[in-house]
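SAMPLE LOG
Freezer: B-3
Tube label: C17
Construct: single chain, 218 aa
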Amino acid sequence: MCFCCARLISGSSRNWSYKVSRRCQTKLRLTKKMARHIALLICSLLAMAGCDPIDVDCTRRQDFNIVKDCCVYPTFRFDQFKSQCGKYMPVGAPRISPCLYECIFNKTNTVVDGAIHPDNARLMLEKLFGNQDFEEAYFNGLMGCSDSVQEMISNRRSRPQRKTEQCSPFSLFYGICAQRYVFNHCPSSSWSGTESCEMARLQNMNCSKPSRGSSHRL
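STRUCTURE (predicted):
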């Protein structure tokens, strides 16, 4: 654009042509500087994308007594399923068990042909929580837990079951996996954001499970 302007007025006053040329030169210098800055920025972003995840101490132990309060979870409204699964709910707070989870998942048809049924899962979560932010987080967790659940089943230690607990851990494993996902993606309004909590979340998202050192972890 500057080159064209300079040529169009080349027959005019030399001073005016000179001023236009100087102005063009200044603009060109600024353009070159901006281009260099943009190039440096792009290179920096590419370097960050290609480097390792945020430096996280994967050997640092997670203290369960601290991380359990990092995300303020909504109350599980198991009473919504009492008429169908009440026999698996002791008096008082219901005991989390494979049988309780299996009953709830079965009664709501959350699992169909060995996979999570999206529509039925949403209905089950709406009934269980009544909290839209957490419903979405748990739903995303459930939908992405298939591989993790299969891994948990493969690594499960066989142990004798009491006659009253002849239930599959399949549904409970989905619940455990979804809970871990929700911890890592806890809604900001329910996340404490302390240093210990942020470190625990970074460990969960960047470290392999065996490297976290403590059995008291999510």
